[in-house]
Amino acid sequence: MRGVRPQPRRRQGFGGEDNTTGVSSLRELRDRLSAPRVVWVMVPAGNITTGVIKELAETLDSGDIVIDGGNTYYRDDITHAKLLSDKGIHLLDTGTSGGVWGLERGYCLMIGGDAGAFAHAEAIFATVAPGVEAAPRTPGRDGEVAQSEKGYFHCGPSGAGHFVKMVHNGIEYGMMASLAEGLNILRNADIGTRVQQGDAETAPLSNPEYYQYDIDIPEVAELWRRGSVIGSWLLDLTAIALHESPELQEFSGRVSDSGEGRWTSIAAIDEGVPAPVLTTALQSRFASRDLDDFANKALSAMRKQFGGHAEKPAN
User: Fold this and answer.
1) Nearby residues of 312 by Cβ (< 8 Å), 6 or more positions away
2) Pair 112, 153: CB distance under 8 Å
3) Does the active-site annotation cover 149?
4) Calpha distance 66→36 (Å, rounded)
């Protein structure tokens, strides 16, 4: 296996027991590989990926295969595939899920592109995927083990792999938001024990006796991991985080989005398909970064104008 690392110090990690070799350029990579070559690209989505694809189009030979394992927008895949196909080069867009745990768990791979190119590279995907042992077989799925059961799947033509990964990430946003919101409700279940403000600007808590619970959030997360309907790997990871830091003090609460949630929402709008949970989860990430600050100021200004409501100072 060969890997491109332009900086010499970054190439120092190659070699040794894993039988890898670092090279300094894509041209050197081409010269070190036998045709038909398979080149796996794993760089940030957007202009960086497009730049690498363009360079590969000028470097590789007809019949070679490029695997884009990043989080590229599926519409860009269609453009990239056309650019490469003009040179006789195949693109396999590959949605890769598994995060930093994939190295030990294996990666879930969602693949789009030419079926023949996929067949040629399938052994690579089978090696990187988690395998059928990663989950119990679905009842009724007997006989030969399917691709999907091994943790990789050829989803369709160019763009299909990253389209499926895009929706996967949109779902991920929704699942994460629901867990986070539920835990926050539990965390505030003791609100009835706190001093209540009594003024015209504060909605009263009518029945404080109903909210007298000091819930141990890390223990509840641990509990839900065992036998509950919402048990999941996301919950497992949440339990780890809460065990390490019950109050999560080291986090500011500013949640980034890398684009897939936005693209999923756009696809839902284009398809005319309602997706309120996924879209709201994305919007909540925007709000976490204070991008609603001016809107909230405008709300306070309107309340003052029509009702003389004074804005309460932040706690």
Assistant:
1) 201, 202
2) no
3) no
4) 11
pLDDT averaged over every residue in the chain: 92
Question: Is 165 labeled as catalytic in the residue annotation?
Answer: yes
C-alpha count within 13 angstroms, C-beta hemisphere, residue 38: 14
pLDDT of 270: 98
pLDDT at 246: 97
Q: Which of 165, 260, 297, 304 is catalytic?
A: 165
Q: Compute the average pLDDT of residues 271-288.
A: 97
| Domains of the chain, start order | 34-156 (3.40.50.720), 166-307 (1.10.1040.10)
Question: By the 8 A CB rule, do 55 and 48 touch?
Answer: no
User: pLDDT, tens digit, for every residue of 239-260?
Assistant: 999 999 999 999 999 999 989 9
| DSSP 8-state code for residue 190 | T
DSSP string covering 217-235: HHHHHHHHTTT-TT--HHH
Q: Nearest to residue 209, comparing CAs of 225, 228, 198, 196?
A: 196
Dihedral angle over CA of 229, 230, 233, 239, nearest 10: -120
Predicted confidence (pLDDT) per residue in 200-219, tens digit: 777 888 899 999 999 999 99
| DSSP assignment letter at 65 | E
pTM: 0.90
Cβ neighbours, 10 Å, residue 158: 23
What residue type is 300 in one-letter code? S
**3 state SS of 4:** strand
- Using CB atoms within 10 Å of the CB of residue 38, give its burial: 0 to 12 exposed, 13 to 18 middle, 19+ buried: middle
Q: Where are the alpha helices (DSSP H) in the chain?
A: 8-11, 26-32, 47-59, 74-85, 102-105, 115-128, 147-150, 160-187, 217-224, 233-244, 260-271, 276-288, 293-307
Check 28, 87, 122, 172 and give the catalytic one.
172
Q: d(Cα 161, Cα 92) in Å, to the nearest integer?
A: 8
First to last CA, the chain: 57
Q: What single-letter amino acid sits at 187?
A: R
